[in-house]
Every structure is written in structure tokens, then in C-alpha cells.
Specification:
Elements: H1 2-24, H2 42-45, H3 89-102, H4 106-110, H5 128-141, H6 143-146, H7 182-191, E1 193-194, E2 200-202, H8 211-229, H9 237-261
Antiparallel strand pairs: 1-2
Helix pairs in contact: 5-8, 7-8
């Protein structure tokens, strides 16, 4: 009886193996081929999808792309919640991205106060690190037009379709003038400045300069402006002589550089009747 059961079991197992092989055989073509593979469950292989900007009869409005659900807010770009202050680069990036997407702080992200007007002052603490960052970003994105000194004499700026203004014009430092307010400068950096016909007088840099870096550039512009308004009396008395010597050295170097690049003076005609 036991042997008979074992025989039945072996026979059943062999039949199962053969059936599995026969079932799998149609899906194999042997060598490489350009023919499509066998599809036993095509609905799982060829799932329907809609391409961006395409039409569909599935939705009543005929649009494949669906509008955002009203009152929803993007949570982040990563699956991790993250923490912007984390020492882990991925978690820090996830935290920053989530904060940037929420953009609940209109003052920080748009440079606008609760009244919808540009802020008079930078809404975050300005320290040495922020100023250094602003100087670096300004040199990368702004100096080509506005000049490293902020005088509007950059190599591209002097050839621009419209004159590039100097930051030392009181218009851009007077907080009672809308163009001199920190929030306005921030907005122009991020969103550009348009002419009356809609063309850009200054292109937008929001895709290259984030909110923090834009405020850092504003801080650096204010440093450059203050440097022109400084007086020797602002310098501690013990350091004034060293500052004077440095100024004289810079003047001498500038004069020497100017003499090297200046065109030669025309020769003075000799006297005595010679022509």
C-alpha cells in the first residue's frame, strides 16, 4: 500500500513538472528574436496611461492632465520628511524642499509684507556668513551686468539694450522710494523687471537664485552702498592710519594700471621751423 502511494506521488509530481514545462514552452522562442514575447496577461503588461497635454474621453473635460485638488499643498519632493538642519545631506535637502514648497512665509519667499507691499528691510538675521554668500552669488549672477563695484559698468551691462543703473543712485538706497526697499530688490532678483510692453528689462533669476541667496545678494548690495557713504571718522582711531595707508596704496595701484593702459600722448611738434 505504501509503495503504491509513493508510485502515485511520483507519477503526479512528474506529471506536474511536464505540465509546467509545456505551459512555459510557448513563452520561449529559444534564440534572440525580434518577435514580441508571449503575453499571457496582457492587461498587466500594457497598462493604459495618458501622456501629458493629451486628450482623453475618460474625463468630462477631455483633458488627460488633471488640475490640482483645491486647497491641497505639495508636501515635498522626497518620500522622507527630512529636517533642513540635519547633518545628513539627503534629509537636509528633503527638509528644505518641503519648507520651500509650502512657502507659508510671504515675507521671506516673496519679499512682501502683510499689506502686500515690498518689505523695507531684510526679514532674516544678516551675519557675516550671509554677506559672504551674497558677495559670492553677486559675483556669479549679477556682476556681469551691474559690475563688481555695483556701478552698472559690467562687461555685459555696458552693452545692454537699456542703461544699467548704479546702486549708488539714491533711488536704490532710499527706503521711502519703492525701488530702494529691500523687498523690491529681492523681487527683481527673483522675478525680473519688465518694460511697459511686457519685455524684460532685467531677466528673472528665480530659477538660479533661491530665496536665501536672493536675500544674501540684497545684503551685499547694502554693504556696497554703505561702503561709499563711510567716513574716516567711522573707523576706530587706532586703525585710521592703517586705513589711510591702504587707501593710498590702492590709489597708487589704480594710477599705475591706468598709466599702462592709457594711449600714448601725441608727440609735440619741434620748434625751429621744422614740420
Amino acid at each position: 500500500m505504501l509503495n503504491h502511494a509513493r508510485t502515485i506521488s511520483k507519477t503526479g509530481l512528474a506529471a506536474g513538472v511536464i505540465a509546467l514545462a509545456v505551459t512555459a514552452l510557448p513563452g520561449c522562442r529559444g534564440e534572440r528574436t525580434n518577435e514580441p514575447p508571449r503575453q499571457f496577461f496582457p492587461d498587466m503588461d500594457d497598462g493604459p496611461k495618458q501622456k501629458a497635454q493629451s486628450q482623453t474621453n475618460f474625463f468630462a473635460d477631455g483633458r488627460a492632465m488633471r488640475p490640482r485638488v483645491e486647497n491641497t499643498v505639495a508636501f515635498g519632493l522626497f518620500s522622507a520628511v527630512g529636517d533642513a538642519k540635519s547633518s545628513n545631506n539627503l534629509l537636509a535637502a528633503a527638509g528644505k524642499a518641503r519648507t520651500d514648497l509650502l512657502r507659508e512665509d510671504s515675507a521671506y519667499y516673496r519679499g512682501m509684507g502683510a499689506d502686500g507691499k515690498p518689505l523695507l528691510k531684510i526679514p532674516v538675521k544678516v551675519d557675516a556668513a550671509m554677506i559672504d554668500r551674497g558677495m559670492e552669488r553677486y559675483g556669479i549672477y549679477c556682476a556681469s551686468c551691474h559690475g563688481y563695484a555695483g556701478d552698472g559698468q559690467g562687461t555685459v551691462g555696458v552693452q545692454w539694450s537699456a542703461p544699467v543703473p548704479s546702486y549708488y543712485d539714491p533711488t536704490f538706497s532710499d527706503p521711502t522710494n519703492p525701488r530702494g526697499q529691500d523687498g523690491h530688490v529681492f523681487d527683481v532678483i527673483r522675478n525680473g523687471l519688465k518694460n511697459a510692453d511686457g519685455s524684460y528689462r532685467m531677466p528673472a533669476y528665480g530659477d538660479k537664485v533661491d530665496a536665501h541667496d536672493a536675500w544674501a545678494i540684497v545684503a551685499w548690495v547694502r554693504v556696497m552702498q554703505e561702503s561709499r557713504r563711510g567716513q574716516m571718522s567711522d573707523v576706530p582711531e587706532a586703525q585710521r592710519e592703517a586705513v589711510r595707508q591702504k587707501i593710498e596704496q590702492l590709489k597708487a595701484a589704480a594710477a599705475a594700471a591706468g598709466a599702462e593702459t592709457a594711449p600714448a600722448a601725441p608727440a609735440t611738434p619741434a620748434t625751429g621751423g621744422q614740420k
